[in-house]
Amino acid sequence: MRFIVCVKQVPDTTEIKVDPETNTLIREGVPSILNPFDQFALEEAIKIKQVDDEIIVISMGPPQAKKALLKCLALGADKAILLTDRAFAGADTWATSYTLTQCIKKIGDFNIIFCGLQAIDGDTAQVGPEIAAQLGIPQITYVESIEKLEGKRLTAKVQTDEGYKIVEARLPLLITGITPSSFEPTNPPMMSIMKANKKSFSTWDVEELGGEKDNYGLSGSLTEVIKVYSPPARQQGVIIDEETPEAAVQKLIDLLSKDKVI
Question: Which PANTHER family match (predicted)?
């Protein structure tokens, strides 16, 4: 079988910077990590991988995203493809999913596409489902674990608001994985990191992918980010410390009245 895992390199959440002119995240020169949801998806693919199976990781991003793909290779992926081109810049989730879909079509036959539930720098959770829609294949979202894979049927444990449910679907399909509380990301050993540099790594640009060039990047985006900003720091709260409950209630009423809340 062939598994394709879509991953993304994201800014370390403690070091996020925003371009005041474009209102987008500044990625160049910013410390980055492999998106945790994507690492979980990759590790789920590795768990069900058999001897003759193949795992290909793909990512769209700047040249520095190679670091995230090398980590994927160290974790156990067999091949990696980086999609990088100035034409891909400014893509929203739809243009991103179009780019990844073109890559998947170029790769050829596949059985399962794995995606993380969402990227921690955007939290949209849209790219995976949009890839499935563009490919015309079934999708299972909020997958906590793959319970069984037999022939052309996959059974997954899926999180819900009330708990979880068991879902079965036919291959080929796409799943998005949500990390359970018990998940502990694997740190690849040094030997695996060294071997990763010898595995197949390709870089594809817009010419390699083909497709409609107007569907890539900013020109292919159906949405526009108006502004990205960090929320203001919360002001220190007021502690009401009175001798009696009645006095505390009266103090609260006075404060709310002063601020014209009541």
Answer: ELECTRON TRANSFER FLAVOPROTEIN BETA-SUBUNIT, PROTEIN FIXA
Evaluate whether 169 touches 70 at the Cβ level (below 8 Å): no
Rounded to whole angstroms, how far apart are CA atoms 195 and 135?
A: 33
Extents of the domains making up the chain: 2-220, 232-262
Give the length of the chain.
262
Q: Does the model's pTM come out above 0.85?
A: no
Over the stretch 33-47, which tens digit does the pLDDT of each residue have? 899 999 999 999 999
According to DSSP, the residues that pair with 156 across neighbouring strands are 146, 167
How far apart are the C-alpha atoms of 119 and 68, rounded to whole Å? 13
The Cα-based distances of 178 to 2, 20, 135, 202 in angstroms read: 21, 32, 22, 28
pLDDT in tens, 117-142: 988 887 888 999 999 999 999 999 99
How, if at all, do strands 139-150 and 173-177 pair? parallel
pLDDT in tens, 218-240: 888 988 877 777 677 777 888 88
